[in-house]
Amino acid sequence: MSRVLVTGGTGTTGKALVRMLRDAGVLVRVASRNPAAGDPDSVRFDWNDPGTHGPALDGADRVFLLPPVESVDPLPQVGPFLRRAERAGIRRLVLLGSAIVLPNAPGAVEVGAQVRAQAGGVVLRASGFMQNFLRPHPLAERIRRFGEIRTAAGDGRLGWVDAHDVAASAAALLTEVSADTRSDYLITGPHAMSYPQAARIITAQTGRRVRVEPLTQDEQAAAYRAAGLPTEFAAALAAVERGIKEGHEDRVSTAVLELTGRPPRAFTEFVAGHADEWAR
Ligand SMILES: NC(=O)c1ccc[n+]([C@@H]2O[C@H](COP(=O)([O-])OP(=O)(O)OC[C@H]3O[C@@H](n4cnc5c(N)ncnc54)[C@H](OP(=O)(O)O)[C@@H]3O)[C@@H](O)[C@H]2O)c1
Description:
Blueprint: E1 4-6, H1 12-23, E2 28-32, E3 42-44, H2 53-57, E4 62-65, H3 75-87, E5 92-98, H4 106-117, E6 121-126, H5 138-146, E7 148-151, H6 163-175, E8 184-187, H7 195-206, E9 211-214, H8 217-226, H9 231-245, H10 255-260, H11 267-272
Parallel strand pairs: 1-2, 1-4, 2-3, 4-5, 5-6, 6-8, 7-9
Helix pairs in contact: 1-6, 3-4, 8-9
Bound molecules: NADP nicotinamide-adenine-dinucleotide phosphate (NAP).
Residues 8-14, 32-34, 45-48, 66-69, 96, 98, 126, 128-129, 132, 163 line the site of NADP nicotinamide-adenine-dinucleotide phosphate.
């Protein structure tokens, strides 16, 4: 049976991917820690419970892989899963990775290397999601409540991408399994953009005044901890903001166009499509 297992299938990217695959007539199995009751196409899957991994893979021949979220070392959970997937004869495996490499996180880099080494393995290195500007992300909550973005990234730019374009890129790779693909794609939106530019676009499109308050890296880490992120992960994300400030993430690619046949959504269009999101 030809079927795609979508891990993270209830999340921002996974949910959009499931819809796109079903629209294309592809059989999908949605993995979740809390599968929909009575849905035969939903399966229990928990990275922290290896006993759920085999049954989730059973009968699948393609996998969308969303590694454990908010972890600086996904390797202990993902490594054994990859070996199991290989034994199960998975012929296409698409990893949702990140364009930004977290500091002191060699496990994430190794997961990418292991996926690339696997037959049919593809890594999508996605840039920052435009959905971070939507609730429940703390960035969005702060804009909504205080009309403010607090960041240590200064005027540094990032190739922000709509997560739906990430899902569409994954759908293209999971629908047509051809050998004629690369094993690694940088997935970005059409333009690199700084937080001050984002604030100006939201203000211009919605009338909601949004200002940017500069933070130091330490202040940024404390803000992430206060928003509930684990200490180590908060520190890593704050270091990333500094990297953005220094220009390390200022890049865009044409991968979405290459994979899906249409250009990625620009932030102005994204904001227009969510205009009520930042109302007071
Ligand atoms: N946000 C960004 O700017 C950005 C940029 C580049 C890459 N990424 C990557 O994108 C990923 C997040 O993707 P997303 O925003 O689409 O997801 P999301 O909306 O945050 O949803 C998280 C998903 O992970 C599942 N999940 C959580 N804990 C799990 C566990 N222990 N075992 C199995 N599944 C678990 C959840 O499913 P259940 O709750 O149903 O189990 C849910 O489907 C991260 O890996 C991140 O590195 C994000």
